[in-house]
Specification:
Elements: E1 5-8, E2 21-34, E3 39-44, E4 52-56, H1 58-61, E5 69-73, H2 75-78, E6 87-92, E7 116-118, E8 126-128, E9 148-151, H3 157-168, E10 174-178, H4 190-197, E11 203-206, E12 215-216, H5 220-229, E13 235-239, H6 257-267, E14 271-274, E15 278-279, E16 289-290, H7 292-301, E17 306-310, E18 322-326, H8 329-337, H9 353-361
Helix pairs in contact: 3-8, 3-9, 6-7
Length: 365
């Protein structure tokens, strides 16, 4: 099949702000990794020497095999954006499944079939069954009743918080609620799959436009209630998926949603814990020490949430949080024991120990 590039990109001055979508047709050459929710592999475009790394979500594309011709969304790689250097499979180049795998057609009983649309009004919009419409949902539960909820700025912090919590209390049951401020498919996170496999996470939920968890939810408050009541979580971690956005400006970073999460947890009667972002290796001055991201979040919170801080580390100045000194080392050792390699901005625990120790400290609060 000849290579095909379709670019939907407005060039008229009147349409200068219209979205861009670049597509290529390629042939799948290898499938390297398959999970319940995602497929990772490589594909070849005729005329290109190097194979492209690809990610597919079979619930959206249908089953895929080596040799299939597929349509790739290559917008981000064409623009050299930080999406992990992968292209995303939109579907087979020749056909589209009449009904996506796992989504039966239904009638008017919305309690029995998938009814809520995620990725709404896009070519990949799809219906999911949400916790709020499950038979087990109890709409009289409106409070978290003191359940610990750690709100994170970055996806990598999920592993650090979870490991520290499990090291401190192996019996703790941890639910991860993924929000929609970064990557939308939970399947894009290799880290979450590793944490589930070794028991450092006990359940996953996706809310907003994020999708692909064991439980889908419409909103963050519902996801928190579902984590407590349906998943029996005694610790809930709220965090975006991988791929946060930042502009270097005061409010222009996607992790600012952490302030909203802390507000919601407090309003629902939970124990709100802010996982701080700190670094001693980041070359950008605004992220050295406690990051300006965390300081901005805390300014927007109004109330002073709890935040973990590693014992033996000098306390930060002018921090609008109630610091609780904890020992993060057992959690970091637990990740090492389970051979889970965590990086943040490409840096390891050896390269930026303050980030790792401060992040893990909130798992013990």
């Amino acid at each position: 099949m000849a290579p095909t590039l379709r670019r939907i990109w407005a060039t008229s001055p009147r349409c200068a702000k219209m979205p861009r979508l670049d597509c290529l047709v390629a042939t799948i050459t290898s499938i390297e990794r398959v999970t319940v929710v995602a497929l990772w592999g490589r594909a070849q475009v005729i005329g290109e020497q190097a194979e492209r790394k690809i990610v597919a979500y079979p619930t959206l594309t249908g089953p895929l095999s080596v040799g299939d011709d597929v349509q790739l969304n290559v917008t981000a790689t064409n623009l050299s954006l930080g999406t992990g250097g992968v292209d995303f499979v939109m579907g087979r180049a020749s056909s589209c499944p009449l009904a996506p795998v796992g989504y039966p057609r239904g009638g008017g009983n919305h309690k029995q079939v998938e009814h809520i649309i995620k990725l709404r009004y896009t070519p990949l919009q799809h219906a999911v069954a949400v916790a709020e419409q499950s038979a087990a949902w109890d709409d009289t539960v409106v409070a978290l009743e003191g359940v610990r909820v750690v709100a994170c700025l970055l996806h990598s912090q999920v592993a650090l918080v979870a490991a520290a919590a499990k090291a401190a209390s192996p019996e703790v049951r941890i639910a991860y609620v993924m929000t929609d401020s970064a990557a939308l498919p939970l399947g894009f996170s290799k880290l979450v799959g590793q944490l589930r496999a070794v028991g450092l996470l006990d359940s996953t939920l996706t809310c907003g436009q994020a999708f692909g968890a064991e439980r889908e939810c419409v909103t963050l408050p519902s996801a928190l209630i579902a984590a407590q009541t349906l998943e029996k979580a005694t610790l809930i971690i709220v965090a975006p998926g991988p791929g946060n956005a930042g502009t270097g400006t005061r409010y222009g970073f996607s992790g600012i949603e952490q302030a909203w999460a802390l507000h919601v947890v407090a309003a629902l009667g939970g124990r709100a814990i802010c996982c701080l972002r700190a670094s001693e290796a980041d070359p950008r001055a605004r992220h050295r020490g406690v990051s300006h991201h965390s300081r901005t979040v805390l300014e927007l919170c109004g109330a002073r949430p709890l935040a973990g801080w590693p014992q033996g580390t000098p306390l930060p100045d002018n921090i609008a949080a109630e610091l609780v000194l904890t020992d993060p080392e057992p959690g970091l050792l637990l990740l090492e024991k389970n051979k889970i390699r965590v990086t943040s901005m490409g840096r390891t625990a050896e390269q930026d120990p303050l980030f790792f120790r401060v992040s893990a400290a909130s798992g013990c609060v």
